[in-house]
Design a protein that fits this description.
Layout lengths: L1 H13 L11 H18 L3 H6 L1 E9 L3 E3 L2 H11 L4 E5 L5 E5 L3 E12 L10 E10 L2 E10 L1
Parallel strand pairs: 1-7
Antiparallel strand pairs: 1-2, 3-5, 4-5, 5-6, 6-7
């Protein structure tokens, strides 16, 4: 897994990413749909759906919170710190999907989170990377990078 992150960061820094999937491709539609499913569950505190889309060997890198490698701890943290307090807003037109042969796909995008308890708080746009692995017809996030 670390190899994927190292390669991705190297490609991003070098600016030499492979061709992006067209928005009309099945892979693009699948990954965008999975992202929507995950964040619809996030916004409604549907922890069961969120957990179903997260790999047991998740690596969640957060520029403010650090690294989390426990799926159970990640879900518990979402339950304790996020449920009912924030709503995700995707930055329109920001999603990019890249095929990873023999693995799955990488999703790059921008989004922000509105604090529901502070409706007048400023909205801050953030970058994210999600690495999705396909196994036996199902998809799960194995790596996430969240940058604010």
């Amino acid at each position: 897994m670390r190899t994927i992150i190292t390669i991705l960061l190297g490609l991003l820094i070098g600016g030499v990413l492979a061709a992006q999937e067209p928005v009309t491709s099945e892979l693009y539609k699948t990954i965008v749909s999975l992202d929507k499913k995950y964040f619809d569950a996030y916004d409604t505190c549907d922890l069961e759906t969120q957990a179903s889309l997260i790999s047991e060997d998740i690596r969640f890198y957060h520029d403010m919170g650090g690294l989390e490698t426990s799926k159970d701890k990640l879900i518990q943290s979402i339950k304790e710190n996020v449920c009912g307090t924030t709503t995700r807003h995707l930055t329109e037109g920001s999603l990019e999907v890249y095929r990873i042969p023999n693995y799955g796909a990488i999703l790059l995008g921008r989004h922000g989170f509105k604090n529901n308890r502070e409706p007048d708080a400023p909205f801050k746009d953030a970058k994210f990377v999600g690495i999705w692995k396909q196994t036996a017809g199902s998809w799960q996030m194995t790596e996430v990078i969240s940058l604010h």
